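> call design_seq(struct)
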């Protein structure tokens, strides 16, 4: 569980996060949504320790990040997996080299142990014949699965995903959504997803945090979002005619 309490973050005279408090639950897909400029990326980077809030605390299963020593922060970072928006694979490395990179950097595993773990996670994300290929030789959806495999190769407690469906077609996006949800439940990970994809919200939004103008404007589940009378949420989520029709049909029963 990740707990955020009264977090504030500014850049110069611009206050981006204005006292946000929320909880991201273990074993669930937690989504951060909101318009551009709402603060969702700054919140995600604050969770990752990239930004340091001026006020408030962020705690990982009771460990307040700002109170940790440098060694304790390094230890915590080994418990974190990250899926970047553009996958961020190393172009000159093969798929298996990309996935094994965190193990070489942060563990003392033998070459055989690393290979065994790499084979396991690639199989888990349904990539069994891509080990020796370069990122340029596989599709965008496969690249995203490689990125997920790399993120989970070190058995993280916390998984962060920044726009994991960016650039993917709708069918592949659903595959990635379901894969992230399955892995979250299977390994009981605290997963936090920064997303603008409303299909993801409706498919896997077990805990949704909606930000508006640097504030938490609403929080709930994918089912509760159908019933909310929060106008800001309704305007954002149901901006397309398709989702308006889905909501109307849902409310009619």
């Amino acid at each position: 569980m990740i707990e955020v309490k009264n977090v504030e973050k500014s850049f110069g005279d611009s206050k981006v996060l204005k006292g946000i408090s929320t909880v991201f639950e273990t074993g669930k897909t937690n989504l951060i949504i909101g318009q551009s400029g709402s603060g969702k990326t700054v919140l995600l980077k604050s969770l990752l320790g990239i930004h340091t809030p001026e006020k408030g605390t962020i705690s990982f299963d009771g460990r307040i990040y700002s109170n940790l020593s440098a060694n304790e922060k390094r230890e915590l970072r080994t418990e974190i997996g990250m899926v970047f928006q553009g996958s961020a694979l190393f172009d000159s490395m093969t798929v298996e080299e990309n996935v094994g990179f965190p193990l070489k950097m942060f563990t003392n595993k033998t070459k055989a142990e690393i290979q065994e773990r790499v084979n396991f996670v690639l199989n888990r994300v349904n990539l069994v014949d891509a080990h020796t290929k370069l990122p340029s030789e596989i599709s965008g959806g496969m690249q995203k699965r490689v990125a997920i495999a790399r993120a989970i190769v070190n058995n993280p407690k916390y998984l962060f995903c920044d726009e994991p469906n960016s650039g993917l077609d709708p069918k592949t996006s659903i595959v990635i959504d379901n894969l992230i949800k399955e892995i979250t439940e299977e390994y009981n990970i605290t997963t936090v997803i920064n997303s603008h994809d409303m299909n993801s919200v409706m498919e896997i939004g077990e805990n949704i945090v909606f930000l508006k103008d640097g504030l938490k404007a609403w929080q709930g589940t994918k089912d509760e979002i159908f019933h909310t009378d929060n106008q800001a949420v309704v305007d954002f989520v149901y901006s397309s005619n398709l989702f308006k029709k889905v909501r109307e049909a849902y409310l009619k029963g």
